[in-house]
Amino acid sequence: MNSRELLVETMSELMWERGYADTSPRDVRERSGVGQGSMYHHFPTKRDLALAALERNVADLLPAASELDGAGDPMARIEAYLARPRDALKGCKVGRMTQDPQVREDPVLLAPVARAFAQVHGSWARVLREAVAAGELRDDLDPERLAHTLMAVLQGGYVLAIAQQDPGPFDDARAGALDLLRAAAPSTPIDKLDKLDKRK
């Protein structure tokens, strides 16, 4: 790994751990072992380095979300994505940046974050439309709105886990999301008959 890549990877990790505001160029140099001259040769400012690190974090996030766009049964892909192992106490590499005021207030730094969430939302909406078309979810559901809901559940789960320093709330949030999706499956004729029988 060359010095530029090492700097980007180190900044990426530090921003994930501490945020942009609480990460200094000195922190990056000390952890990476890259000298000041080399650092400023590649990245004249902290902001330049942060932008490269954000792009790295986005690149790490999107391949996981692309699992939603794969082949096969839509609900199986959704279940696999929700069950994928995650470090809940570290939070989402991209989502945590929205909590950093210096990132939120800088349109250049915020752009990759917004772009990443737009792409993930697109993946969610597509797989949910497929699930509706396959009869796995009711056709009165709005895939666009449901995509936002599921993304909010995951991001909120991270926040709760970090606040309590316990991955349990995150695991419960994604299990609850799956419960709600299963409850949104259309009723089959047999289900309807069962309900009628119970009313008698």
TrEMBL record:
Keyword Transcription among record annotations = yes
tRNA-binding as UniProt keyword: no
Q: Which InterPro entries match?
A: Homeodomain-like_sf, HTH_TetR, Tet_transcr_reg_TetR-rel_C_sf, TetR_C
Q: What is this protein called?
A: TetR/AcrR family transcriptional regulator
Which controlled-vocabulary keywords does the entry list? DNA-binding, Transcription, Transcription regulation
Organism source for this protein? Answer: Plantactinospora alkalitolerans
Source taxon at top rank: Bacteria
Where does the HTH tetR-type domain start and stop, copy by copy? 1-61
Positions of the DNA-binding region: 24-43
